[in-house]
Amino acid sequence: MISLRDLRGSVAIVGVGQAGCGEAKGRTEMEILAQASHKAVADAGLRMSDIDGLATASSSSAMWPLSVVEYLGLNPRFVDSTMIGGSSFVSHTMPAMLALASGQCDAVLVCYGSTQRTAVMNRGEIKRARRQLEPHPFEEVYEPLQPLTSYALAARRYMHQYGATRRHLAEVAVAARKWAQLNPEAFRRDPLTIDDVLNARMVSDPLSVLDSCLVTDGAAAFVMVRADRAKDLPQKPAYVLGSATATWNKQISAMPDLTVTAARDSGKRAFEMAGITPANVDVAELYDAFTINTLLFLEDLGFCKKGEAAAFVENGGIAPGGHLPVNTNGGGLSCVHPGMYGAFIMIEAVRQLRGQCGERQIEDAQIALVHGNGGSLSSQATAVLGTQATL
Amino acid sequence: MINAVEDIETDGPGVQETYFRYLTEGRFVIQCCAACSNYVFYPRAYCPHCGSAQLEWVEPSGKGLIYSYSIVHRKPESGGDYNVVLVDLEEGVRCMSRVEGVASHELDIDMPVQAYIEQTDSGPIVLMKRRQDDQ
Q: What residue ranges define each of the domains in chain A, with the CATH number in brackets?
């Protein structure tokens, strides 16, 4: 039996691409997905005909990978469309690794696209349709704003239990904005202060509109191949050192402890596979759908103890110049968030390891931690990426 | 050897429909597992703790404590603000609900509440009201 430690570093991300980020008015989600995919394949020095594995997911289409296969003209030997929310594309790295390691396929394209900001069908209509398709009779009768209220319930409980305040949540939003100001691709780059966040329109108390991720369009894609092939391709490979996924529940009312996410499990297993600890991480990309996420994940992944994330992020602790660079692209809060964001944090991590991040580049970044979240804190996927030097 | 799977009743209404029939009759019920003694909510066909199909309907005391809450801000013309709460019932299960008759600023974690059923045009709903500690 092959062990997870055997898989460590056996596969690398060799191409990345994004398209339609921000607003892609007049474009379909498939069009921008295809654009990002072609960019990623070209970036890898490959042709679309080299792609024989596909991992993708959609929050509206029931047979999305079939449409992607058809649109891109693929004949894949490996298809995965595990749909666990925004973390899906981080989670896809493990089945892709297994498929590559076994020889089931030789080049996997992971891709996603959404035009939720500019699409004709607005988000309200989509929510109503989804409610018909997938009723939650024990929650929806109370009209929680989904997903916002679920995260607000977690934030309220966390604040109560650990004495954190809205100011600590605001630190997360301000840090993300400061990183976004160093990223020309980020959607929101105007100055943002703690007071701006504290005074922002309240949506589902204690979370305001500025505690919430952006609603943008965007597509992202990356290509994975075995390590032996990666070293002959044009870009500096980002090796997958560890990958693990954990889910414990779906709805927030079924989450045992709103202050502890399954990231505690996914993170532990991903770090074990990679053979590293949080202290070895040079840069962390943590899925910040809402400001509370970042606090919970810093703790659950082991960057600090439970209840200590508020102090960790104080005074710009995760902003440029802080003690840990977190969400260096500006995050879902200030860079891009087209419904599901997992593929975008993978790309930011790869770019940091390549040294392509310009003003926001973390000096000598060798190990990047990517953590994806999905649903209402309900699915957690962690990937550890490293440069050649970490193998 | 394969393990036997306990059959669940396939005639008549299913678990979810039964739950809502009870609510329509004005009875709030949860399940209790005869095999492992754990309480279960929301209603399931098999116990999520031990896998048994021996889930029995029981009426909880309806007493609980607010585990967390959020005030959803809504324009006055659309009905104004309302709360969404998670309540830990004393049987050990958690449910989502809304607390009626309490101002937003009075809501607090660990506030004692009592469940009650309200029949609405769109069906019965389990709501919460404030409970004095000794009630």
A: 4-119+214-390 (3.40.47.10)
Q: A148, A156, A169: best mutation site toward chain B, by most B Cβ within 10 Å?
A: A156
pTM reported for the whole predicted model = 0.97
Element (H, E) at A107: strand A107-114
The residue assigned the tokens 């599901």 is A340
ipTM value, please give it: 0.95
Distance CA A365, CA B62 (A): 55
For the domain spanning B63-130, the CATH number is 2.40.50
Burial of residue A105 (number of CB atoms within 10 Å: 0-12, 13-18, 19+) = buried
Domain boundaries, chain B: 15-58, 63-130
Give dist(CA A328, CA A178) in Å, integer: 9
Any idea of the CA torsion for A245, A250, A252, A255, to the nearest 10 degrees?
-60
For residue B56, what are its two tokens? Answer: 């029995």
Q: B110-130, pLDDT tens digit by residue?
A: 999 999 999 999 899 999 999
Asked if the C-beta of B15 comes within 8 angstroms of chain A's C-beta atoms, the answer is no
Residue A273's alpha-carbon distances to A42, A244, A383, B113, in angstroms, are 30, 9, 10, 46
B18, B29, B71, B96: best to mutate for the A interface, most A CBs within 10 A: B96
CA separation for the pair A341, A327 (Å, rounded):
12
Structure tokens at A56: 């993708």
Q: Give the pLDDT confidence of A142-151 residue by residue, as tens digits.
A: 999 999 999 9
Q: Flag whether residue B70 sits within 8 Å of chain A, measured between CB atoms.
A: yes
